[in-house]
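User: I'm curious whether this sequence folds into something compact or stays loose and floppy. Could you predict its structure so I can see for myself?
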Amino acid sequence: TAIVVSPLIALMKNQVDVIRNLAEEEGIAHFMNSTLNKVALEQVRDDVLSGKTKMLYLAPETMTKEDNLEFFKKMKVSFFAIDEAHCISEWGHDFRVEYRKLRPVIDQIGRAPIIALTATATDKVRTDIKKNLGILDARDFKSSFNRPNLYYEVRPKTPDIDKEIIKFIKANPHKSGIIYCLSRKRVETLAEILCVNQIKAAPYHAGMEAAQRTQTQDDFLMERIDVIVATIAFGMGIDKPDVRFVIHYEIPKSLEGYYQETGRAGRDGGEGKCIAFYAKD
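Assistant: Here's the prediction. I'll summarize afterward.
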């Protein structure tokens, strides 16, 4: 069984659903995180130990939890895949302290090949990832930051920004898009404005109930809604290839963060429009 470490509950569910849709048996892929009740957790453990499960997705907190270690030690692990590996590095744009505890836990579970993956890592961050995971001699596979199918534009942020966004979306009917805002309040207000203007939109932020977030994500993937208005809590590794536009209502906190967020557009090779609104003050 391969262990995949993934930082977001929504992302795990998304990827497990995709794998299950390709397989005959649901048990081939599972996730373990805080959303599972005791019965569901037992089912996961049974499927893993019986050899049915080939991919097990874990939150870093789940993997480093003492109570789970005995179970992991009973597993036959084929390899460890560390997704969103920039979270390991203190110089990464989304540093998470639990990620730095992964190597000691891997040593306790039992050594197996390790692959670390990220869409955004500077040379300094990549070195830090390898150092922390104890894989300094690992081979590097690096692709270009340039995505020729993405169109980038910066527009001045004026008091008419909401109208401008509505006009843009209406000029691109039935196309999937993400609008990023920095605050939860702005997310909810803008989603409401879009809905009032007959645009199928929904808000998404970490302050919402988990069930509601899951529902919104499913609605977006199944194209029941066209636009998600979100904080950066949405989209890390989201598996929707035909996102046609990503709009930044505010300038993101870092260039790496901006690249990663705009990188959710046009993953199918089709066009992706990336528009950022910028105000000097």
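Summary: The mean pLDDT is 91. The two ends are 52 Å apart (CA to CA).
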